[in-house]
C-alpha cells in the first residue's frame, strides 16, 4: 500500500506557498541560474578539448546527410545531441567556447529548475539554496558544464521531467501528464540511460496521494513506446561500450564522491550527513508531494540499477548518471533547512562552496581533462615539416584531429584507407599491414601518436603491428614529447 508521507515548508517558510504567484518569484530560478552560468562560463576555454569532445566536433561539423548516415553506424544514442550541435556549430563554429556553450547554458537552466522544484516542495529558501549548491558546490557539475557532451542537457531534462511530475501529481490533469510524457521522451532521445529516472518517478508516484493514479503509467508508458524502436536500434551499437568493465569497489567510491562533491572525504561526509538530517527530520505532513520521496529515489535508484546491471553486462560509468546530482543538491539544501538555527542554511551553503574551491580550480585548469589535445596539436605544429606523416597507435585516437584540425592538415595519415566521413564513423578505416609498410617507404619522417589513456582491452593486434612497423623498421627515434594523455614520438629514416 502506498505510504502517504509528505512535507510542507520548514517552520518559518509556510507563507512562501501563499506568495508563490507574486511577480518577483521569477527571481527564485533566475538568481541560481545566473550564478551557475557565471560559474560555468568562467575559464570555459582554458581546459583543452579532449577526445570525447573531438568526437562531438567530428560529428556535428559533417553535412546533415553524412551525420545521419554516421548515426546509423555509431553513437545513435547521442542522436538528438549531435543534431543540436550541428546547428550550434553551423552558427558559432567549432572553437572550445562555442561547442561548450550549450552545456554551460544547460547547467544554468538546471540550477534554475531545481530552485523552482525546491520551492514547490519545501519553500523558497530551500529552492534557492539547492540551485546555488548545484551551480557552485559540485566540481563534477562544473566539469560537465564546460564539456561538449550531452550529459549537461540530460541533467536539465531530468530536473524538468521531475518538476513536471510533481506538478502533474498535484494537479492530476491529463495535460500536465502529457507534457511530462513529452519531456521524458526528449530525455530518452538525449541519452537512453536517463530513462532509469523512471524507476525513481515510479516510487514518487506510488507514495503520492491524489491525482489520476493511472495517468503516470500511461504517460511514462507512452514515452517508452515512442522510444522503443530507437532503443532497440541503439542496442545494435553496444560494441561502443565494450571497453567498460564490471563495477568494482572503486566505482562505488567514485559514485558517492561524485554525487556529493569534490571527491574528497572532507566534502562527502558533510553532504551525506546533511542529506540524512533532511531524511530523518522532515517537516510537518501536508497534502503536497514529499521532497524526500522525490529526491531520494532519484539520487539512489538510477545508479544502483545501472551498476547492478553492469555485473551482467558492463554499462556503468558515472557520467551516465550525472543527472542524479541535482537530487543530492536538493536533499542537502533541505537538510540544512531542518537544522534548528536560522543562519544554518546560508552559512552551510557558503561553507560547502568554500570547501570545493581547490577542486573547482583544478577542473578549470589546462590539465583538467583526460588528455590535452591543444598541447598535442602544438607539438605537431611546432615540429612538423613538409612531407611528414602521422600514425595513430590506436585507431580510435584518430578522432582527436577534429579538435584542432589546423595542426593535421599537412600531415599524411599513411595508415588511413577510408576517411571517417566516408566510412560513416569517427575513426575511418585503416589499410592492411602490407600497404602501410609500402607507404612508410615513401616518407622520411613519421609522427607516432601513442595514447596513454587507451584501455588495454581496446588494444588490438593491428595496433601492435603499426607500432612495430614504425619503431622497428627503417626509422630511428629522434624526438619524444609528452602531453596530458599520451606521447608523440618522431621517427626519421635511418
Topology diagram in text:
Elements (H helix, E strand, L loop, with lengths): L14 H4 L8 H15 L9 H10 L3 H8 L7 H14 L3 H27 L1 H13 L2 H7 L5 H21 L2 H17 L6 H11 L7 H20 L14 H12 L4 H16 L10 H20 L14 H13 L6 H12 L1 H7 L9 H11 L5 E4 L19 E2 L2 E3 L1 H4 L5 E2 L2 H8 L4 E7 L9 H11 L3 E9 L2 E8 L1
Parallel strand pairs: 1-2, 1-5
Antiparallel strand pairs: 3-4, 5-7, 6-7
Descriptive report:
It is a single chain. The chain is of the alpha/beta class and 494 residues long. It folds into 2 domains: 15-49 and 95-363, no CATH class; 373-493, Rossmann fold. The protein contains 22 helices and 7 strands. The chain has helices at 15-18, 27-41, 51-60, 64-71, 79-92, 96-122, 124-136, 139-145, 151-171, 174-190, 197-207, 215-234, 249-260, 265-280, 291-310, 325-337, 344-355, 357-363, 373-383, 420-423, 433-440, 461-471, and strands spanning 389-392, 412-413, 416-418, 429-430, 445-451, 475-483, 486-493. The strands form 2 sheets. The chain has a 5-stranded mixed beta sheet, sandwiched between helices. It has a two-stranded antiparallel ribbon with strand order 3-4. α2 (27-41) packs antiparallel against α6 and α21 (433-440) runs parallel beside α22 (461-471). The longest helix is centred in the first third of the chain and has 27 residues, at 96-122. The chain is elongated. The model is unreliable at 1-20 (pLDDT under 50).
Amino acid at each position: 500500500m502506498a505510504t502517504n508521507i509528505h512535507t510542507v515548508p520548514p517552520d518559518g517558510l509556510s507563507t512562501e506557498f501563499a506568495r508563490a504567484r507574486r511577480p518577483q518569484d521569477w527571481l527564485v530560478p533566475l538568481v541560481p541560474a545566473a550564478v551557475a552560468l557565471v560559474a560555468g562560463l568562467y575559464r570555459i576555454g582554458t581546459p583543452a578539448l579532449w577526445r570525447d569532445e573531438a568526437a562531438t566536433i567530428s560529428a556535428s561539423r559533417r553535412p546533415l546527410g553524412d551525420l545521419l548516415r554516421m548515426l546509423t553506424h555509431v553513437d545513435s544514442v547521442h542522436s538528438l545531441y549531435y543534431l543540436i550541435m550541428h546547428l550550434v556549430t553551423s552558427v558559432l563554429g567549432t572553437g572550445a567556447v562555442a561547442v561548450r556553450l550549450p552545456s554551460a547554458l544547460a547547467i544554468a537552466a538546471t540550477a534554475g529548475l531545481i530552485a523552482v522544484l525546491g520551492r514547490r516542495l519545501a519553500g523558497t529558501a530551500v529552492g534557492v539554496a539547492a540551485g546555488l549548491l548545484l551551480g557552485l558546490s559540485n566540481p563534477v557539475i562544473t566539469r560537465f558544464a564546460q564539456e561538449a557532451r550531452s550529459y549537461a542537457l540530460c541533467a536539465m531534462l531530468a530536473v524538468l521531467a521531475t518538476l513536471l511530475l510533481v506538478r502533474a501529481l498535484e494537479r492530476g490533469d491529463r495535460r500536465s501528464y502529457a507534457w511530462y510524457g513529452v519531456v521524458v521522451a526528449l530525455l530518452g532521445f538525449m541519452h537512453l540511460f536517463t530513462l532509469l529516472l523512471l524507476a525513481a518517478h515510479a516510487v514518487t508516484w506510488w507514495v503520492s496521494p491524489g491525482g489520476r493514479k493511472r495517468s503516470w503509467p500511461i504517460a511514462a508508458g507512452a514515452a517508452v513506446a515512442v522510444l522503443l524502436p530507437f532503443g532497440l536500434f541503439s542496442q545494435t551499437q553496444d560494441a561502443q561500450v565494450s571497453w567498460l568493465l564490471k563495477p568494482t569497489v572503486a566505482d562505488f567510491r567514485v559514485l558517492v564522491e561524485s554525487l556529493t562533491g569534490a571527491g574528497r572525504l572532507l566534502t562527502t561526509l558533510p553532504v551525506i550527513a546533511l542529506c540524512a538530517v533532511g531524511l530523518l527530520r522532515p517537516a510537518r505532513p501536508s497534502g503536497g508531494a514529499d521532497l524526500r520521496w522525490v529526491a531520494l529515489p532519484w539520487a539512489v535508484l538510477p545508479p544502483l540499477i545501472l551498476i547492478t546491471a553492469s555485473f551482467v553486462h558492463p554499462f556503468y560509468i558515472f557520467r551516465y548518471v550525472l543527472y542524479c546530482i541535482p537530487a543530492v543538491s536538493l536533499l542537502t539544501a533541505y537538510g540544512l533547512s531542518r537544522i534548528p538555527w536560522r543562519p544554518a542554511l546560508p552559512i552551510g551553503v557558503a561553507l560547502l562552496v568554500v570547501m570545493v574551491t581547490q577542486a573547482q580550480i583544478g577542473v578549470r585548469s589546462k590539465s583538467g581533462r583526460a588528455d590535452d589535445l591543444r598541447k598535442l596539436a602544438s607539438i605537431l605544429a611546432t615540429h612538423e615539416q613538409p612531407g611528414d606523416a602521422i600514425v595513430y597507435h590506436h585507431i580510435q585516437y584518430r578522432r582527436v584531429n577534429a579538435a584542432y584540425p589546423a595542426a593535421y592538415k599537412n600531415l599524411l595519415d599513411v595508415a588511413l584507407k577510408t576517411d571517417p566521413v566516408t566510412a560513416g564513423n569517427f575513426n575511418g578505416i585503416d589499410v592492411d599491414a602490407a600497404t602501410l609498410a609500402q607507404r612508410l617507404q615513401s616518407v622520411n619522417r613519421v609522427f607516432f601518436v601513442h595514447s596513454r589513456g587507451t584501455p588495454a582491452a581496446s588494444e588490438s593486434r593491428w595496433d601492435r603491428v603499426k607500432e612495430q612497423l614504425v619503431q622497428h623498421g627503417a626509422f630511428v627515434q629522434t624526438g619524444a614529447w609528452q602531453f596530458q594523455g599520451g606521447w608523440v614520438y618522431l621517427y626519421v629514416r635511418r
